[in-house]
């Protein structure tokens, strides 16, 4: 694919989405800048050191260094601006578009005319039309002439060794054909995956919400089955493996909670936007309620297990294995561990934590230290280090109860050693 010669890229937000995108743009021949508020992160990036523990970045940032800055004036250099800021929800699960609005206003203050602006942040359908475009228009920019606006929802999966920014298929939508063509050309230059133009920018916005809502709904289904099968004495893991022999079945697995910036967040953007238009997404709301209930369900499993051995929750030393939301990364966004730890402390449990990827937030310096001090364990994150623990090690350290929040430990071997084991429907 021919590169867009002399086009300069500026990525706003150098996190899990923006930094890999910036490095990839530089790799493919674009002079690339990054705007980031965190001065410490900027300093590391400019030293060609990744602030994120991620294989792609650690390998490629030194080879394809970008120029990072906290000064918004670097946007003036850019022909292509990529907005990669968070789109969180508040404590009541209401969408917070403040970062998107702030980033857009920053772009407007510094943008050269004729530039392409792409919103990669996940938003509900209508944000580009109802929020982003009016900010440009109020500043005197004519869309399709002075500025070209597109939406290409991010698809980064931290820690995924198969799919990353270099090969992920992308979808792109814009307000006009020229803006669409500019955005499609750029993404075709940086990914080997398919780049699919959408008929409208609103449809492009809807794609990401649908992707993650689909996963959320299916995870909620198996989480509800797990609760049911715990009552019916059925092993859900075995059932899912059996059902997977059917060619049309798509396996999803239960767990102690749904984490990450996408699945537990994105459905709320559609729920609230649809509500404003007079539609109630009952199915999505129910899925969110089920998945939000799993940390509490996990803690209840611990309480039941401790009751069985006539031990109170209060004062029991419980080791939490993992703080990150998924295996072998350092990302804590929306991690179920946060809620589980909070609930344990409400029960006056003596909580210890260890995560090999997040030592600065762990109470213990290593796994051996946590196992030695703990009376019970809750496995929250299926890090490779935890999967290597032999059942005998649990016995040697006098662990009495294990709650396996990922159904990844050797249940039968643990039970044979006299340790009380409970999984999520397993």
Give your account of this protein's structure.
With 426 residues, the protein is an alpha/beta fold. Helix content is 41%, strand content 13%. It has helices at residues 18-27, 39-46, 55-60, 98-110, 127-138, 177-190, 201-232, 236-243, 266-276, 282-292, 294-308, 336-346, 367-373, 384-387, 391-396, 411-416; strands at residues 9-12, 32-35, 67-69, 80-83, 115-119, 147-151, 170-174, 195-197, 317-321, 350-354, 376-379, 401-404, 420-423. The strands form 2 sheets. An 8-stranded mixed β-sheet has the order 3-2-1-4-5-6-7-8, sandwiched between helices. Strands 10-9-11-12-13 form a 5-stranded parallel β-sheet, sandwiched between helices. Helix 4 (98-110) runs parallel beside helix 5 (127-138), helix 7 (201-232) packs across helix 9 and helix 7 (201-232) packs across helix 10 (282-292). The longest helix has 32 residues, at 201-232. The chain is globular and about 70 Å long. The model has no long low-confidence stretch (mean pLDDT 95).
């Amino acid at each position: 694919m021919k590169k867009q010669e002399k086009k300069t890229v500026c990525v706003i937000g150098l996190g899990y989405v923006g930094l890999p995108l910036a490095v990839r743009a530089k790799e493919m021949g674009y002079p690339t800048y990054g705007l980031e508020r965190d001065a410490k992160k900027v300093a590391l990036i400019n030293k060609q050191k990744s602030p994120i523990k991620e294989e792609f970045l650690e390998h490629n940032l030194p080879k394809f260094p970008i120029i990072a800055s906290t000064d918004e004036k670097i946007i003036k250099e850019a022909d292509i601006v990529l907005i990669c800021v968070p789109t969180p929800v508040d404590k009541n699960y209401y969408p917070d578009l403040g970062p998107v609005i702030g980033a857009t206003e920053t772009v407007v203050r510094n943008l050269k005319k004729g530039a392409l602006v792409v919103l990669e942040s996940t938003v509900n359908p209508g944000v580009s039309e109802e929020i982003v475009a009016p900010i440009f228009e109020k500043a005197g920019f004519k869309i399709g002439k002075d500025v070209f606006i597109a939406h290409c929802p991010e698809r980064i999966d931290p820690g995924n060794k198969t799919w990353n920014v270099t090969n992920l298929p992308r979808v792109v939508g814009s307000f006009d054909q020229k803006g669409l063509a500019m955005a499609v050309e750029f993404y075709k230059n940086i990914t080997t995956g398919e780049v699919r133009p959408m008929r409208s920018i609103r449809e492009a916005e809807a794609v990401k919400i649908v992707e993650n809502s689909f996963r959320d709904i299916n995870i909620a289904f198996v989480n509800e089955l797990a609760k049911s099968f715990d009552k019916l004495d059925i092993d859900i893991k075995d059932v899912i493996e059996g059902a997977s022999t059917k060619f049309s079945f798509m396996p999803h697995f239960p767990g102690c909670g749904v984490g990450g910036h996408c699945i537990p967040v994105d459905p709320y953007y559609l729920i609230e936007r649809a509500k404003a238009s007079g539609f109630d997404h009952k199915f999505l709301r129910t899925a969110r309620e089920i998945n939000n209930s799993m940390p509490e369900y996990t803690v209840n499993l611990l309480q039941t297990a401790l009751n069985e051995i006539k031990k109170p929750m209060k004062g029991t030393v419980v080791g939490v294995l993992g703080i990150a939301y998924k295996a072998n990364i350092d990302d804590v966004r929306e991690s179920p561990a946060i809620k589980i730890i909070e609930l344990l402390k409400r029960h006056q449990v003596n909580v210890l934590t260890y995560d090999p990827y997040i030592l600065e937030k762990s109470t213990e310096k290593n796994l051996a230290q946590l196992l030695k001090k703990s009376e019970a364990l809750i496995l929250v994150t299926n890090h490779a280090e935890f999967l290597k623990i032999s059942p005998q090690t649990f016995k040697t350290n006098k662990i009495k109860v294990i709650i396996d929040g990922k159904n990844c430990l050797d249940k039968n071997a643990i039970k044979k050693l006299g340790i009380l084991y409970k999984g999520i429907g397993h």
